[in-house]
Amino acid sequence: MMLSLTVALLLTCTWGRAQESISWEVQRYDGWYNNLLHHSRGAVGSRLLRLLPANYADGVYQALQEPHVPNARQLSNAVARGPSGLPSLRNTTVLAVFFGFHVLSDILGTEKPGCPAEFLNIHIPRGDLVFDPTGTGDVVLPFQRIHWATGTGQSPNSPREQTNEVTGWLDGSSIYGPSHSWSDALRSFSGGQLAAGPDRRVPRETDGRVPMWKALDPSTGQGGPQGIYGNGGIFNGFSCDHLGSAWGNENLFLQAESIVWFRYHNCLAAALANNHSTWSDEDVFQHARKRVIATFQSIVLYEWLPTLLGKPVPEYNGYQQHLDPSISPEFVAAAGQFLATMVPPGIYMRNPQCQFQQVPGPGGSFPAVRLCNSYWSRKSTGQTDNMDVDNLLLGMSSQIAEREDNIVVEDLQALPCHHNSFNPPADYWYGPLKYSRTDHVASWLQRGRDLGLPTYNQARELFGLEPLQNWSALAPHLDQQVLEKVALLYANDTARLELLPGGMLEADSSLFSAIILDQFVRLRDGDRFWFENTKNGLFTVEEAKEIRNITFHEVLTAVTSASPELLQPHVFTWTEGDVCPQPQQLTAQHLANCTPMTVLDYFEGSGAGFGIIIVVLCCLPLAMEWHGPKTDSSPVYIQLQADKVLKVLDRRGCALRNISLKAHQSVEVILSSNRGNKALLLKSPKEYDLVLLFSEEAERSNFIGKLQSYLEESGLDLHVSEMKEQSLMKRAVTQEQRKQILETFFRHLFAQVLEIDRSDAGELNFESPQKAKESLTCELSRAEFAEALGLKAHSMFVDSMFSLADKDGNGYISFREFLDILVVFMKGSPEEKSKVMFRMYDIDENGFLSKKEFLRMLREQAEQVTESMFRASGFEDRDELTWEDFHYMLRDHDTELRLTHLCLKGVPEELKQNLHNRVSFIKKKETISEEKDPNLDNVSHYMEQEGQELRRRPGRKVNQYQLHLYTEAQRKKYERNKIQQKIQEFKRFIENYRRHIVCVVLFSAITAGVFVERAYYYAFASPSTGIAQTTFVGIIISRGSAACISFMYSYILLTMCRNLITVLRETFLNHYIPFDAAVDFHRWIAMAALIFSVLHTAGHIVNVYIFSVTPLSVLSCLFSSVFTDDGSQLPQKYYWWFFQTIPGMTGVLLLVILAVMYVFATHHFRRVSFQGFWITHHLYVLLYVLVIIHGSYALIQQPRFYVYFIIPALIYGADKLLSLSRKKVEISVVKAELLPSGVTHLRFQRPQDFEYKSGQWVRIACVALGTTEYHPFTLTSAPHEDTLSLHIRAAGPWTTRLRELYSPESLALIGKMPKVSPMLLLWGHLFWVKAAGWTE
Asked: Which distant-in-sequence residues (6+ apart) come within 8 Å of 1115 by Cβ?
């Protein structure tokens, strides 16, 4: 507390010493509290004061436009066109004109564009000689409306009112800035002076703290800080922009006027400091500031204004507190346009000795500086020393301005040039936005409509002037054609004539003079700090009189090198006999050509890079799954066996496949002819082909030689051909292609046997002709036949049935052969089935079934049935059963036992009557089943007839039994057309997945609702920021998709809450929500979120493109926290949005993460590297962090992601913590068995006190393969067993390595069973599946 008090006292003492000589109230820089009754009057940001009601089309804010008012360009051509070179009627000098612009910059700041951006574009008439010489009729000059006060423009009672961005007082804000911070940036804080450059006669280079206007140079197109601030100022290397007015650098001549007051302040400060050595910097500065402001006020009101208007100013009668001195919109338009008519096309430069200088320019030297080439100039225009400012000021003091009339020189108005034939087609004022030039008069006509100015007659009546009754009275001094054109544009209605064109056409400028005089008188009389107000304590009466006697002549002689005698006493006019007369009244013919108009292309040079960004950002997350080669290559050995069999062995010597050549007369081999000649394709017509890749061509040649010798010994021919390796690979029939062929084969096979509707089986007509042909001509090998039946290939049953079905004895079963044997077993009568089985087990084919053969049949059938029942009950690993196990197994297979197809003779009669206990039975002397569907049409034939008989074995006796085979449909099919088939498929789909469909539809509806709500909000209901008008499509797509992403990214977490899903599965909700499909739903949401992410990116790509071609004045409205309108208009390039903003960088990173997660989550990469999938999927943590950062920057809207994210995140976090608390134990494997079809059976110890239910799964990790990779598998053991067992099919890398680890060879090397580390649940259920399965 004492420390704070001490600091406060020190600050008070320091401030007191700093202002010990200041005895008056220091005027604020921002204009506040000048009027103690109305504090904000004249302050920065205050409203303009309307002298008359707003003249808007709707009475509120909509500006008058065609056809209610004439086209601005046409009106400009009619009113302001005429020859230049006419001198001022009052001999007003150019110095007075630009002094006037400097005065306006002190009290006016209405250039700031409004937000949201609104445009009153100027439509150029077809065939305009300047802007539309080709006659397209679609040229539009952009014109942006200025800033207005918030809360106005809402109703006719509160029409739009514009604001003034600088102080509305003659307080030197153009010298010291409109704010305290601005003033501090201009000061040197030494000797009370403003900061100067090395020359001490011009302001110092700016450090960027002052927001100077930096419009583009229309003559060169140059922009940026060079010359405006930074190195290389306009005046011979000095940066002269460190001024009080943001627009002080608009042109060289306005800049020179500003430098005068900069020098004058420092001159007074130096004198005060010398006379008052004890004064502090603040004392000196405030004394000098007070004196400069007073001098400025005096010169403006009592020297410059009477000269400009040609009449004296009323005497000062004291401060009037209740008078509103605010700037009026009528004054804004009238003063600016009145001065514009007096601006010459060029400005002389002369030295103190009255020598007028030549100025270099394009094409030679010229007598004066061209105005149109001097706007916002970043280069020297011929100045050679530090006297350039002086020379410009002296030249302007000797030059007579243009006449006070309606004509505006071509440097301001876009007019076709009538002078030298080599001149460009037009010279004009610097343009807005992408146009380097525009029409000054047309722009001010639009500005008047933007301001809602009254009509000409309304303004005249306000100031006590006679209203216009007829057009001839408006301007009798003008050519009658001018009045006729104007009258025609206003439909000969004088009441519609607007203020600006009417005031410009007046002969005596009476209206403009009245408006200007009224404004300055109100400024003087309503200013509490006016220098003549002796009550404010600023000056005494004597001091005020002394200040009033100071002229601008004295100021110039004090700050320039000119001697008083070489400068006329009244510098704002030049009369006959004054010193240094101008050589001649300048016209455009004497000057350099104006550079022609150019249209900027903000996107120039960005097309290629932007296109690459589009491709990368949109295609990266949608990168298609790379399937890679159909099968991975691996080292193999080819063994040529003597029985015409090629055996393919792996590196351990295990057989991978056998290729039988017994049924072939020749072998076709195709060699690659490129890429080192290393590939070889061995065609296997009825199986998939064998492709061999050798390390070098010599090795392949050696193999071909051995193969040829082997085939010659076997009596087979070898056909060798060559083709490119790529073509060779395409021609090869891979194992995957063979599976697809067999899939089609079996689908149509069972469709014919079981008479399945075509809508369920699919039609061959829907498939390609090649695929249909391959499927119908396909023949099965013995291994494929066994796999189709689900039996072991070496089984005696398979061998017998295969031999029986293979009628032609070629070692393969055709479609027709398989169909015949399948029909017998699935549709045949009991007699036919028994005959087939009889022949299968009649090994010696003598027509009799011996007791040994019969016993073998029963034993084999019993073994298969027993094995099947044991496996289904989970007892496949047991050698003996308890009574409870036996009862359990019989109970579960009660239905199957009751539906036995074959019954022995002598069955009790009561069982014969029960159809549920039998399907058919054998009776004597009957060849057809008793039970027959009346709708079936039995078509039978004998197997021994016309090539359809079963193949006889050598020495076989003729069988007395004939078999009936059903080879055609036994009932008429109800043929449906394709539409009915699709309807049937749709109905079945709905029936099977109705819960899934309801959930998906509900979730999709919510997502669509979220999208529509955000899109509608930004399109129609959001606060008017202009974003929707700027990029309508991009904003609704990006915002709508962003809301969907937020929703999906949040609630996708619930699909991974395993514990929650387990609990909910036991509730009634499981009847309505398919919790078993949570993983599938997770994939669906992820894919939908990915699509919306791409859509969001596409929306922002549209936004970025539009923002990259949108001028800075619009962007500063859309993103006020990011951009500041400094007049440069150049927007940021597209890469700035992507890589130099937080939303852009995080967005790109999010797309990269999504792409990585998606690619590694695809089926192929999960199989190749599950660990890669597991690691990349844990990037979701980084993804959510980036999503939060991405939205928190609030570039367009406030963060909303938390609205969706908090609740799911809390639930997921709690569920994850519960999962992490699960117990992990290492358990020894007590038995490992490698089963067919790549299945590995593991049996391990059951943990103590572990209870579970059938169907529960566990996640296991093999210690030998790493303890960080867990995979879920369903337990296949019964809950009451003492051990736990799993059946794991080798499908991916981990399961394949697991199978190899438990192979006999590996166990022999290891010497013990590797342990597993299951993550077991000690209560309830973790996850349920409909059947035991695996996932990887």
From this structure: 1107, 1122, 1123, 1131, 1132
